[in-house]
Amino acid sequence: MLTVVKSHYLYFFPHYLTIKNLYLLYVPQFDPNGRQCLTIEGYRKIGKIVHDLAKQHSDGRLVIVQEGGYHVTYSAYYLHAFLESVLSLASLPPFPDPIVYYPEDEP
Known about the structure:
The chain is mainly alpha-helical. It is 37% helix and 0% strand. The protein has three helices and no strands. This is Histone deacetylase domain-containing protein.
């Protein structure tokens, strides 16, 4: 079982972290303001982990809530990659990541 809890999350989610069998997953998008830099492949891997956890612990039942973000264009790509993994629907071939770097990082 993969468990990652950073102490600053405990401040925001203390009630939810005490509910038995609740898995709270916070995944920041590829956010130019916050520079989390999670790629499309990263979202695919997280989707697979979430799929496996739901299958193992809740007979595949899952609730997904998406909120907004700063990089509106990229949101559609990462959501697609995440959902195709959660639902076990692979794109053939997987679509490429349109934003795998920040333009200002080029020499």
